Amino acid sequence: MHAAAPRSARLNVAEPSMPSSPSFRRVSVVIPVFNEEGTIARLHAEVTATLTRLGYDWEILFVDDGSTDASREILGSLAARDSRVRVFGFRSNQGKADALNLAFSEATGDAVITMDADLQDRPAEIPNLLAALEDSDLVSGWKQIRHDPLGKTLPSRLFNSVTAFVSGVRLHDFNCGLKAYRREVVAELDLYGEMHRFIPVIAARRGFRVTEIPVGHAPRTAGRSKYGLSRLFKGAFDLLTVILLTRFESRPLHFFGAVGLALSALGFAVLTYMTYLRLIVHAVIGNRPLLFLGIVLLLAGIQLFSAGLVGELVVRRTRQGRSYLPLRYATRAPDNSLDASRTKST
Predict the structure, then answer these.
(1) In this structure, are 77 and 184 located in the same domain?
(2) pLDDT at 330
(3) Which parts of the chain are beta strand (E)?
(4) Of 247, 271, 305, which one is at a domain's C-terminal end?
(5) Do 218 and 300 share a domain, yes or no?
(6) Are the beta carbons of 193 and 121 closer than 8 angstroms?
C-alpha cells in the first residue's frame, strides 16, 4: 500500500527481493521486551545471524519495559558479550509506545527494523523488509496466516477493519510488530498510549510512502500474550486521537464545528416541534422529555462549536511568528535518504 498523499493510500502487496546494491549503510533493530526470558537468547542469535549474512553495519536495541522475570539479567549478559547490542530499560512497565520512543531516539541506523521479542516475528523476514524499504519510507508486515488463538485474531481483524475504514489507509495488519522505517520517519514520531498501533496512519498522513508486504508468523513457544480484549477500547480512543491530530490539528473548528452544528440543528428541530405543539396544538410540553432532549442537544452543539473556535484561536496563536512547512524536502540525496527538515520557530 502506497500513501503518496495524505488523503489517499493504495494497497501494494509484493514479494520483494534484495537489491544488488542496497542504499542503507547501517541498520538498527529495535526490540521491546516485557517478560520474555524464554526467547531472548534465541532471538538475539537469529537476528545476529540474519544481519551478519546481509553484510550491513548493524546494531540491536533492546528496551526492557519493566520486566519482572529474568529478562533484564539476560539482556545485560548479551550486551556484555556483544558490543553491537545496546540495552535500555524502564523501572516499571510503561507500554510499547514509550519503549519504541526511547529506542527510536537512540537508534543510529538509517534503516530501522522493529519486531516483537516473542519470536512470533521471524528475523528471517528482515531482508524482505529492507528490500521493500528501498522504494518506500515505511514497510509494514502483514501476517496473512496467524498462529494465535481466536480470542486474539478476531479482535485484531475488527480493529484492522475499523482503522482502515476510518483512516483511509488500506492496510490488512496495522499492529504487526515487524516494520521497517527510514530514519526520517522515526524522527517524526512521538508515540504515547497505544499510538504505536497507528504508526502507518500517522506516517501516511504526513506524506510518507507506506507499503505492506506479507510476512511469516510463528506460534508462541514461550511466555504468554500481553494483549487482551481491553486493547480494543484503548485503541478506539487512540484512533480518535490520531484522526484529530493528523486531520484536524490545524483546523479544529472543522471537526468540533461540524459535530456541534449537527447537534445544534437536531436540537433546534426538536425545539421547533415543541414550539409547534405549544402554540398551535396548545399541548402541555413542560413535562415532556423531548423538550429537555432538545435543550441538551442545542447546548451541547453550542459548546462543541465554541470549543472549535477556541481551538482555532489556540492554533492561530501558536502559529504566529512562524514561517515553515511542517514537512519539507527538496530531493533525494545520493544515498537515497530523504532530505527532509523542519524549520524551527523563531
Answers:
(1) yes
(2) 45
(3) 2-5, 8-10, 26-33, 57-65, 85-90, 111-114, 138-143, 179-182, 210-215, 328-332, 338-341
(4) 247
(5) no
(6) no
Long-range contacts of 239-247 (CB under 8 A, 24+ apart): 239/162, 239/163, 239/166, 239/167, 239/198, 241/193, 241/195, 242/167, 242/195, 242/198, 242/201, 242/202, 243/166, 243/167, 245/202, 246/6, 246/201, 246/202, 246/205, 246/206, 247/205
Domain shared by 257 and 304, yes or no? yes
Question: Model confidence over 140-166: pLDDT tens digits?
Answer: 999 887 766 666 667 777 777 888 887
- Give this prediction's pTM: 0.70
Grid cell listed for 99: 519503549
Determine, yes or no, domain membership for 214. yes
Which of the residue ranges 65-74, 264-273, 307-316 would you say has the lowest mean pLDDT?
Answer: 307-316
pLDDT band at 250 (very low <50, low <70, confident <90, very high): confident
Query: pLDDT of 195-221, one tens digit each?
Result: 888 899 889 988 899 999 999 877 666
Instruction: For residue 127, give the amino acid letter.
Output: P
DSSP-based three-state secondary structure for 162: helix
Q: Tell me: do 215 and 273 sit in the same domain.
A: no
Residue 282 in any domain: the answer is yes
Count structural domains, the chain. Answer: 2
Residues 109-145 have pLDDT tens digits of 999 999 999 888 899 999 999 999 999 999 999 988 7
Within 277-327, residue ranges assigned H as helices are: 289-319
Instruction: Residue 290: give the domain boundaries.
Output: 252-319
Write out the three cell numbers for 33. 521486551
Amino acid letter, 345: S
Please list the alpha-helical segments (H only) found in 134-251: 150-167, 183-187, 199-205, 230-247
Q: Which three cell numbers stand for residue 69?
A: 522475570
SS3 141: strand
